Amino acid sequence: MGCSVALYPILRSFAFALDAERAHRATIAALKLLPAGRPATSDPLLSVQVAGLDFPNPVGLAAGFDKDAEVFGQMLGFGFGFVEVGTLSPLPQAGNPRPRLFRLAEDEAVINRMGFNNAGQAAALQRLAARRRGGLVGVNLGANKDRASGDAAIADYSAGVVAMTGVADYLTINISSPNTPGLRGLQDEGALDALLAAIIEVRGAGPPIFLKVAPDLEPAQVDAIARTALERKLDGLIVGNTTLSRPSLRSTYREEAGGLSGTPLKRLALARLRDFRSATSGELPLIAAGGIASGEDAFERIRAGASLIQLYTALVYHGPGLARQINRELKRLLADHGFARLTDAIGTEKRGAC
Ligand SMILES: Cc1cc2nc3c(=O)[nH]c(=O)nc-3n(C[C@H](O)[C@H](O)[C@H](O)COP(=O)(O)O)c2cc1C
């Protein structure tokens, strides 16, 4: 994989000449030509146990890059401690009309309104079942369009849990994508409690379950989600998805509808992580995502309470060497701050009253 890392600046200029979705498809096609890489070995300084799983390092690939579970083996070979595939809905669906993916290069950001385009759970299941090498792979679950509320949503998520239980190291319940109308309504306390109760029941002795939330939440919503997640004994929260808000942006694509990710999301995602840390009193593992592009960013989230981090957009701008680079930088930062191991740094941020 070393060669593709060194060539990234050249590959990037070709990819950036294409429209963003074509570039992504070309990237997946190229990755499929590579053999699966060797998954990261456990790093004595960076390994962390969450929900009973041993993560070799804390840097994960966020959902949406490998929606159909085609290249998780290759991505594990780039040094990620875990890869999350999906979002997968029970049935295949085309997603929203194109264009629906925009690169905001001046802002190191992306706006997407993909709308859960995916080839469905059955196709992904086959590939996941044929997995040979180790490495941790999580499966992110969604509902089909027009089934994003009420009993239909519960049925779709439950079907996902049942289908993927045998092949996933963990499952993520994604109720926070902004591009499926009604989906974020599942974050409301009553709807969430009914959904989680059903899912926990069908999961039985299956894999850990994480809940992925939006960064666009009011304090009362954060409290209600934290309470429900703790009561239903979820295994962790992923904080979080893309934002519908628009911090100041320079790119001409800034008015496009959809979820914003990358550098402009960083402050909001960190603020929400801190909110969830205090709302859960550190009793629930937190996985941070949103605008993480460096070891400094990862370290800041870890100190704010995250046990693991995930990224996607920074990969577009910095290339496949990023996971290894962040892990290297994390080790240096841990040493600089006098921490013997990453686990010693989790949640150590001291925040003043003012
Ligand atoms: C093109 C694109 C597609 C995405 N698709 C999904 C998805 O299917 N499911 C999901 O849970 N998150 C999805 N996300 C959100 C990411 O997993 C992540 O939560 C978000 O982008 C913030 O992290 P980042 O700033 O590092 O990209 C997607 C993000 C992007 C940019």
Q: Would you kindly provide a brief summary of this structure?
A:
This protein is of the alpha/beta class and 354 residues long. The protein has helices at residues 2-6, 8-17, 20-33, 72-76, 121-129, 150-164, 189-203, 219-231, 266-280, 295-303, 313-318, 322-336, 342-345; strands at residues 48-50, 53-55, 59-61, 82-88, 101-104, 109-112, 136-141, 170-174, 209-213, 236-239, 259-262, 286-289, 306-311. Strands 3-4-7-8-9-10-12-13 form an 8-stranded parallel barrel, surrounded by 4 helices.
What does this structure look like?
The protein has 354 residues and is α/β, with parallel strands linked by helices. The strands form three sheets. An eight-stranded parallel beta barrel has the order 3-4-7-8-9-10-12-13, surrounded by four helices. It has a three-stranded antiparallel β-sheet with strand order 5-6-11, with no helix packed on it. Strands 1-2 form a two-stranded antiparallel sheet. The model has no long low-confidence stretch (mean pLDDT 94). The structure holds flavin mononucleotide. Flavin mononucleotide binds next to strand 4, strand 6, strand 11 and helix 11.
Radius of gyration: 19 Å
- One letter per element, helices H and strands E, the order comes to HHHEEEHEEEHEHEHEHEEHEHEHHH
Mean pLDDT equals: 94
Shape: globular
- Residue stretches low in confidence (pLDDT < 50, at least 5 long) are none
Strand order in the largest sheet: 3-4-7-8-9-10-12-13
Give the proportion of residues in helices: 25-40%
Strand segment tally: 13
Structural class: alpha/beta
- Which ligands accompany this protein? flavin mononucleotide
The span between the termini is 47 Å
Largest sheet: 8 strands, parallel, barrel
Total helical elements:
13
Strand content: 15-25%
